[in-house]
Amino acid sequence: MRRRWWGGVAAALVLGWTQLAAAQGKILLSEVLGSWQGDDTVQFVELQMIAAGQHMLAGVGELVFDDAAGDAGTRRFFTLTANVPRGVINATILVATARFRQVAPSVAPDFTLPDGMMATRHGRVCYQVRSSNGGATLVDCIAYGSFTGQNGSFGRPEVTPDNRSLQRVDLTGVNRPDWITALTPAPQNNAGAITTMATLCGDGRISQGEVCDGSDLGGQTCASLGYARGKLRCVECHLDTRNCTFCGNDEKGDDEECDGSDFGDTTCGALGFTGGTLACSEKCRISTAGCDPTFHIPGGGPAKTDCTAEWRITNVAQKPGSTGKTALKQRCRDGDTGCDHDAVAGQCTFALAACFVRDDARLAKCTAPAVGDWTLLAPAIDVAPAADLVAAVAALAPSTVVGGAVTFATPLETPETCTETVAVVLPVGGKLKLRARTSATAGKPRDQDTLKLLCRP
């Protein structure tokens, strides 16, 4: 039996979803068929009234048809030129082609849709209300197939309505949750006459309008369709390529991080590492296992200034992944040679450096200025390893040091200038929070960076 999506309490939801310019705007798309059993001239659009008194449609209600690209130059309009008799709540209006009438003779369309108005497999159908001044208010839209045009708040397209219809089941105003496919369309006209169109899908044979049926895929495979590999399925007598993949063709796709040796512009360096070689998994995901264990950490300042100064650390267990994102809290287990650079039990020794004026691919909005001064805000200068860090920064160029502040006599301009590695020793269970501020020669912009170090047993 035909599912009806209307509920009396839903009117408020619909009216809140779109601003309606006229009473006849309380009508929504209900069911759409683009083709039937191989005949692209069998089409219909069913509308449904969500409030009483919507039958005065002449010159007001209008269907809008878009092609796959949603190009305004190829857009077609079908104006409802007459009123319909029934205007009760839930009443429907059927707009269908002449060929539909021959296929379903028991249901007379309320309006005859000319052939060629509706895109069969990839497009969009909308309902709008025209005003007396020549304007129009868009009320409802269903996009389907490979529609690439703008669909506003209605969201991503649904699947194609060929050899099956799209039926409305909800009122959220978004295509995917509001619509389902139906192998047995059930169009209904304004008089209440309804028919169920019998499907040939499901008998295991490929009939007219079908590209597959059950396990019979018509000899098609993922590979024959241009994919690299995968398992092709048949769903509702349409080929389902969701388990097919282009991964493995050695050409990086938009939804792939890599493919074979094709990493696009991504390198270990672009992800923040000091070097190394990327690898690509069988699922076309980047592996950073071959990158150096030493990497850079932007300290969490504004994106436009965060490359002015960065920390550099060695920590295999917390190195960046395929996105280059790094943790501002770096943990190390006592004795882990990937991060603990001593052989002393009961403590962790981190290898840390400060780097300046770095061209960081992860921070595309940042252009590092010349550095005029650097200040260690925490820990205090008398807390290890504060003095060592300040001394390492001061050694980069002629400078003056006052407490934790280093002011360079000549601004640092050389790209990626890094200090010598400083050993930061923490007892097991210990933690240290580092905060530093870096300023350009004129005092602005400023980059404030943070890093937390923890030693675990």
Summarize the topology.
Elements: H1 11-17, E1 27-33, E2 44-49, E3 61-66, E4 76-79, E5 92-96, H2 98-103, E6 111-112, E7 123-130, E8 136-144, E9 165-168, H3 175-178, E10 179-182, E11 229-230, E12 233-235, E13 238-240, E14 244-245, E15 279-280, E16 286-287, E17 294-298, E18 309-314, E19 329-333, E20 347-356, E21 371-378, H4 386-394, E22 399-402, E23 405-412, E24 417-418, E25 422-427, E26 431-440, E27 446-456
Parallel strand pairs: 5-6, 19-27
Antiparallel strand pairs: 1-2, 1-9, 2-5, 3-4, 3-7, 7-8, 9-10, 11-14, 12-13, 15-16, 17-18, 18-20, 20-24, 20-25, 21-23, 21-26, 22-23, 26-27
Would you mind describing this structure in some detail?
- The protein is mainly β and 457 residues long.
- Helices cover 6% and strands 32% of the residues.
- The protein has four helices and 27 strands.
- The strands form seven sheets. The protein has a six-stranded mixed sheet with strand order 6-5-2-1-9-10. Strands 19-27-26-21-23-22 form a six-stranded mixed sheet, covered by helices on one side. Strands 17, 18, 20, 24 and 25 form a five-stranded antiparallel sheet that branches.
